[in-house]
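Marked as duplicate of an earlier ticket. Keeping the data here for the record.
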Amino acid sequence: MKARGLQLDKLNDSIDLSVKLTLKHQDTKLKKKQTRRIKHKMNPVWNEMMMLEVPRELLSKSSLDLEVLNQANPGELEPLGRCHLGLDSSNVGLQHWQQMLDNPRKQTAMWHALYD
């Protein structure tokens, strides 16, 4: 939905941010989606809903990776950080995943810290 407190040293002069979502079942990538790009905003707001249809029986061994990307140059995406949601996650990643499982087809939002 949005980001705040992104590391300035990784952004250089160009700010053109998006988020890539990758749904995985075990180690197999099932689906990928990406938000639109937001330019010139240090605290971007995408406010986009992403629907990923997955059979319930696959969810126990599935996960969702989110990666914040900056397009510094045309055709070149630089990763700024990522977070992981799923049953193999811990703390907020696991809590958010469980909330999504408990409330299918409902929007759930939580803050997540990014790591490299």
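See parent ticket for discussion. Strands lie at 16-25, 28-34, 38-39, 62-73, 76-86.
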